[in-house]
Amino acid sequence: MGRFVQGEDRRLAFLLPASLDDYVSEDNPVQVVEAFIDELDFHGSGFAGATPAETGRPAYHPSTMLKIYLYGYLNRIQSSRRLEREAQRNIELMWLTGRLAPDFKTIANFRRDNGDAIRAVCSQFVVLCRQLSLFGQATVAVDGSKFKAVNNRDRNYTQHKAAKRIEQVEGSIERYLAALDRADREASDVPQARVDQIREKIAGLRGQMQFLKDMAAQVEAAPDHQVSLTDPDARSMNSSGRGTGIVGYNLQAAVDAEHHLIVAHEVVNEGNDRAQLAPMGRQALAAIDAPEITVLADRGYMNGEQVLECEGTGILPCVPRTDTSGKAQRGLFTKADFVYDADQDRYTCPAGEYLTKATRVRTTMATSTTIAT
After folding, report:
1. Which InterPro entries did the record assign (predicted)?
2. CB distance 216 to 131 below 8 Å
3. Phi then psi dihedrals of residue 272, to 5 deg
4. Which of 8, 200, 253, 254 has the fewest C-beta atoms lying within 10 Å of its C-beta?
């Protein structure tokens, strides 16, 4: 073992214990988290528990909980149970919290009870970035991401889902009624227990049918014709995979093009991004505090009304047009397949050949007609 790098004996006792500062370098991101959170006004931001109660067990200060929350955000740790484990074993979190390790329920309750306050902290962070001139180019990129809610797809109802499930229940009732008819004709061959079981299933299906009819009425009365039972504000929307979908939320984010900092964010329950260009542009413009900004987005944001709404507001949208032609599906070339050269005033086709402008002269002969009176 003499030719290998040797570690220390874990049973070796130290006269002076090592300091946590020895394990966290000065350029570690947790240093920024510590400095930023220590300067926050938790009373003014509206954090619950900023003023300790005079009786009962002492609570964790909101600064400690916010440090854990932000550390999880920076390191993509969303689960409160995982954050609990990290607080017990992660040197960086130990340094941030002073070796405090709240349980997962405390972490989850903090996020649930301080949503508005955490949003206010995000706004203060954007102000800090603006003061540090981190938003120099005044260019942001906007995009949306789908996040799954707790609501299961079976507990989300649309007009199509309600009608389809009613049809399925009606088919099941018909099958059980047919089974009862056979049992009546063959009374000696079918045990009574089987008959009672079929009748119980029919009664249960009729109760389910009534529930589905009531749900169909609620769906019809809903503004967007959709109802979610577990998360009322969650909506069914398509995900990136073809033929798949989730019940969740659409998170819109505007990101600074230079330093990739999130300038503005918003959670909506619309399944597409066509109505989000102008709202996210306004939020980004207010956050950056610039006379005008350039907003980059994909063709999913292309909406003529949204582009028109940006006009005259200091928002310069840059969005590709949506290809509405069916040529690509028919195996034909589209306009996007041809590259235009402005200097030569010509197009280059996919085969690499040049397409020049052709001039056509059309001559027409004028005719006169004399009308006799």
Report:
1. IS1182_transpos, Transposase_11, Transposase_InsH_N
2. no
3. -125, 175
4. 8
13-38 residue pLDDT tens: 777 667 888 888 888 989 989 999 98
Closest among 260, 227, 33 to 139, alpha carbons compared: 260
Overall pTM surpassing 0.85 (yes/no): no
β 139-148/339-341 pair status: unpaired
Q: 151 exposed, middle or buried (CB, 10 Å; 0-12, 13-18, 19+)?
A: buried
Tokens linked to 340: 């235009």
Residue 237 has pLDDT above 90, yes or no: no
H or E segment at 180? helix 159-185
Tell me the C-alpha distance between 234 and 152, whole Å. 10
pLDDT at residue 189, rounded to an integer: 63
Which among 118, 115, 87 has a CA at the least distance from the CA of 103? 87
- Report which of residues 81 and 50 the model is more confident about: 81
Token couple for 111: 């996020």
Q: Are 301 and 282 in contact (CB under 8 A)?
A: no
Q: 45: which DSSP letter?
A: H
Which residue, chain included where needed, has tokens 């749900």? 215
Domain ranges of the chain: 21-132, 153-228, 235-242+249-318, 330-356
CB neighbours of residue 265 within 10 Å: 16
Taking the CA atoms of residue 265, residue 268, residue 273 and residue 277 in that order, the dihedral angle to the nearest 10 degrees is -50
* CA separation for the pair 173, 164 (Å, rounded): 14
Question: How is residue 268 written in tokens?
Answer: 């909506």
